[in-house]
# Entry
Amino acid sequence: MRRELRVIPFQLSDVLAACEGRLAREANCGELCRVSTDTRTLKPGDLFVALSGPNHDGNEFASRALQAGAGALVLREAEDLKLPAGETPVVLCADPRRALSQLAAWHRARLQVPVVGITGSCGKTTTKNMLASLLGGYRRVVSSPASYNNDIGVPHTLFGAGASCEVLVVEMGTNAPGEIEALCRTAQPTGAIVTNVGASHLAGLGSEEGVAHEKGALPASIGPEGWVVLNADSAWSNTLRARTAARVLTFGIEHDADVRASDLHFEGEQTTFQLNVPLVGISCQVRLPMLGQHAVANLLAALAACVGLGEDLNRVLEQVGTLRDGRGRMHSRRVGGLTLIDDSYNSNPHSARAAVRVLMGIPASRRVLVLGDMHELGAVSVKEHRDLGEFAARAQVEQLVTIGVDALDIATGAGLAGMSTGSVRHFPSVERASEAIHEFVGAGDVVLVKGSRAAGLEDLVQCIDRLHGGEGHPG
# Structure
């Protein structure tokens, strides 16, 4: 995929106008070509924006930024501020973090390109990567690096788009009300994808209805000249549709949709299905080199976006064979005598159930499901963990392994649903589970590992790799 890493040059006067700042020290300043918030990666001539966090004051890094060659500084206005020595221009503003978003919005307004915003309870990073890869074979695409989806990551994504960028794909995350709306003001998307709505970030959003309202801010930001992609299999699809004046395109598997998959088959490390897109007269079989119904759903969302962008879908489909699983995202591979599916990057009730369905769709003498804590579920955490355990039991998983304090409720739920005690193992930590791997993982097994990022289950994946002759976690 081709990416533009340098922004279109800008002037110090542009910074002052965009950020509503004041010039605390005038000095000669040439063109600025990049924006940096990290002195470790800052390059000579960059504009350094000093962001503060709960444990650090960004202003304290001003001298380090100058040593690295910063062309200008944006610092937080403070009574005790002492300007760093030197002749580099300094802009002061009340909130450098807000200034970063303001400058990004100013830069976005200079770009005459379609901007696709992507959000959802799960699958947004994979869908973003799929869309960027599908288009990247023949267009200049800029997309969010990794999961740069907050009020720092989104501006950096925008700054990465230069004059030759043809499509900009921006991931948008949230864990509190109002965040998606703010990101939309910065990114000004012309098209949108909402992958799904589920029980995620409930500690900040309160309920699934709260999640739907927050995610709905993205389609609400798209005007009548734009387009929005919605999940026809989601119970919240009509609610989200009602919030936008844009053209709506749907994708789905269980229900009729503009972009639909049927007859799914899992074969080794790929999924085959029948694709139907009546809008453009396409009906064909597709081989996706990724595993699972949720992977197909993510691809359908990306394909629907391509329709919204006016792309030739036949040309887009030629790129499907190049798609690959991301690190820790349903990455399936053979490790010695077993099959290991690494889905340790993140977890919530919706994606965890999807992972169980994938596991149970794979023929094997024994399937081992390893589940860690699901975080940010707030007051419904116990219920959601127990419900997941019941779901695993009803799916008839042969061996369930739970790891972590919250995950104990998964084991409890499985027991309440009738799963035998010999088929359920619980460990308080990844370290304890790693010590006992040989007791619950063996040759011929299909093993799926899933948990929230903070659960640290990637360490268990590495341990399984080493124990069974693999090469460690893929990088």
